[in-house]
Amino acid sequence: MKRFVWISTTLLLMGILACTFGRESNDAAQLSTTNVVETNSEVSILAALPSSATVDFGNPKGGTRQARHSLVPRTVVISVNGSVTYNIGGRHQPAIYAPGTKPNDINPSGGLVNDSNNRIVLGPLQVGGSWTTPVGTFSVPGRYLVICNITSHFFDEDMYGWVIVEKP
Ligand SMILES: [Cu+2]
User: What distance in angstroms lies between residue 129's CA and the mean position of ligand 1's atoms?
Assistant: First the structure.
C-alpha cells in the first residue's frame, strides 16, 4: 500500500512538472510569434508611405465659413519627391513654404499674401479644378506649410495645412 502511494505521488509530481514545462514552452512560442508580427507591422508601415496624396482645398458645401476655407485632411504624409494634388473648392491659390516656416512667419502684402520669403512654389489662383505640386517641390524631408494665398482666407479663416515629407 505504501509503495502504491509513493508511485502515485511520483506520477502526480511528474504530471505537474510536465504541465509546467509544457506551459513555459507554449509561452515562449507565443512570445516569438508576437515579435514576428510586430516586426512585420513595422515593415508594412514603412512600405505604406505613399508617394502622393490628395487634399480638398476649400469646400464650397462646408457648413461654416471656416469649413469652406479648410484643407481636408489638414496634414498629409508623403515620401521624398512625392506630390500632392489639391482639389480646389471655390476660389483659392495654394502656396507652399519651406520646412521650418510657421503661419506666424507669413506677412501679407494686400488682398493676396504674396510673401515670397521661404516660398517654394505658388500655385495658380483658380476657381475649382485641381492643381498638383510640380516635381522638386518636396525634395527634402520636413514639414511644409501650405497656405491659401488669398489674405482673408489665410488670416481670417486659418486656411492652411501641412505636408510632412519623410524618407521612405
Ligand atoms: Cu482660399
Answer: 13
